[in-house]
Protein 1
Amino acid sequence: MNTYPGERLGLPESGTGSIARPGRRIGALLIDYAAATIIATGFLGYDQFALPTEAGLTQFAPMLVFAVLQILFIPTAGGSPGHRILGMRLVRRDGGWIGLWRPVVRTLLLIVVVPAVIWDSDQRGLHDKAIGTILIRA
């Protein structure tokens, strides 16, 4: 029986290298989505009076910018801007480089939402388990 999240993976209970806890994860998600919304609004504008059928691309722009931020920052900075601001990084379970395809698959699963809210006993979402990554404290 595991006494703390990450024990089964050989990670420390707390501090650097331990599993990132839900509060940090949710905070990072909020930072990333707020940044994506600000960027999308800055470049594409915002029409508060547009009907959903008239909004077109601007309706989905924040989600697209969010995806681009995830896909660009994870392999280059070790995590999204929100992850890095809150002291986390994404690593492969075997210690290798994240690569280019993992951030794409992880982001697609994150956007679907369901894989990200189903966790195992190590507090790893299905989106991380699917690609063999762990979100740890930096």
Note: Residues 44 and 57 are 9 Å apart (CA to CA).
Protein 2
Amino acid sequence: MNATQFNVHFSLQSLASEITSAPINRSLRKAAVLVPLMEVDGQLQILLTRRALHLRAHPGQYSFPGGKVDDADNSMIETALREADEEIGLTADNVTVIGNFPPHATFTGFEVTPIVGIIKQPFDIILDPGEVSETFWVPLQYFFNASNRYTFSFMRNGNDFDVHYMPYKGKFIWGVTAAIIDLLCRHIDLQHLK
């Protein structure tokens, strides 16, 4: 699937509202992440980061560029684009935002809004070592294969909760990041492309 096919199909689908969020009974800090996709040789790749080990929230986890909303941010899109620029050097003018998903609550007290964007041109990744320890690309097709996406259920505070995870080349992608990828794949639903 190339960027044009993805963009058209993403836009034509009704927005998926079913997000498996953590059952939270407290106020949440608002955050946004950019789900960055780039076409390489006619196929979309998705860019993931690994959070620095010294961070207080989610150290060492695989994630998307993103973070907490700043007072100066006018929208979740602005937050996601600002954070992507700060964390990996992806400037806002190099991203075409094509949509977003509803917020996802985490056990750590965040309400994360995923912003989906297509990277227009290859760019030099410049890591902020205070935030990110590495980046890597995964062919989106890998995640479209449902046998590469897993879910297990557990109970917390009397509520059943699904946790998504996706192993990829020795990396263990899980939690909100995996839930967002799963939602994206279900939203696109390749069966409609045949």
Note: The domain at 3-193 is CATH 3.90.79.10 (Nucleoside Triphosphate Pyrophosphohydrolase).
Protein 3
Amino acid sequence: MAGYARAQPATGTAADIGWNGKAQPPRYEGQIFPPWQHGENNDAVNKGFEFTVPEVDVMADFHGDLTDPKLVLYVGGNYYFAMAPLVAAFEQQNPQYKGRIFYVTIPPGMLVTAMKEGGTFTSGNMTFTARPDAYFAGLKKVEALITTGELTGPAVPYVTNNLTIMVPKGNPAHITGLADLGRPGLRLVMPNPAYEGIARQIQASLVKAGGAALEKQVYETGVANGTTILTHIHHRQTPLFLMQGLADAGITWKSEAVFQEQAGHPISDVPIPAALNTTAIYAGAMVKGAAHPDAAKAWLEFIHSPAALEIFERYDFKPYTGSTPGPAPAG
């Protein structure tokens, strides 16, 4: 097949086998790999010996000191980048929690699975338990978990978010809108419907833009022929794959593209018109049987305060006003 070199069995010495066929250090720019905030998302007072190796030894979605936390938050990963300033502002108002907040920022569905496992996680060779005091996701998801008894009401909505098409800086594939995502040969990175609620909103927007045929091209045909990569943690994997040159475009929340540009990464985005877009409402609630109920209540009060909303607005979130039409659950 033209342009394709089949891998040959290794026949050389150990010195000949390795990166790109030679024993040499990996040639990548380490700053493109998470975590991207240089420790700011860890409010531990004493960080001890710091051991983070990009792509090899890194836990980008677990934040803080596990020793004796006084507030544990399960936060849908759609705004992991806003958590550092949010925690700092909360601790300024509530200094008794300084350095005592632990939070997890993986997709909301995975957080529910973790709750059902008693808050026990295994990442690589490390297993630990951090039972949540409060949970944050889309409003409908939070309301559903209140109904089934995992959460204690009321639900507290605070901000909204919209979709966008994330692309590498300069938009080399010349994406102009959702319809372009059906272009043959275009390489896409898309949230996995099995793990990420955002995929449902994306599928609905694809149908609005190009009918069932466009949605099928992106999520069925593309997956089958390898031109669509499905993620597990869309909010980190999409820009990572774009910066590595593994994809040409992917749909994310607008806030994520804004953060990537603010961080100085070679990322841009193509806006999706309101008629084709989806608005998500983010909300939270206390977990039933929370170990730190007073702390959870304090965070839930803080999350829709002027101080918190000002931080969210830096990333293009909009304050929830109770009048957003047609809300859909956040990813």
Note: The radius of gyration is 21 Å.
